[in-house]
Amino acid sequence: MTGTHIIIDISNIIDNQKLKYNHSVIPILNKIVEKYNLNVVGKAIHQFEPFGVTAVYILAESHLSIHTFVDERKVAIDLYTCNQFNDLYDIEMFFKSLFNNECNMTYKIIAR
Known about the structure:
Blueprint: E1 4-11, H1 22-35, E2 40-47, E3 53-59, E4 63-69, E5 74-81, H2 88-97, E6 104-111
Antiparallel strand pairs: 1-5, 1-6, 2-3, 3-4, 4-5
């Protein structure tokens, strides 16, 4: 196995204000980087008008991306690393904690 690809969709985000602008989305990505000990080697961040964000962190381990859908109160997150993730409950609780515990989360983990 060369890595793990996690594709995450989170909906029913109560506070969609945190989805609108770079200044509130970047801390979410930084928490993911910190939690999983990832090494950022590059960044591309785009602020949509009037609001919405797409951001990609290039990692030494691969990549992390987020796309916000403010009106729909949802995000799409993609994390591909050479790390392995064994604790599925921890993954779900961590990502829900970034938004709200009542949000809906679906994800798919692909061993590469």
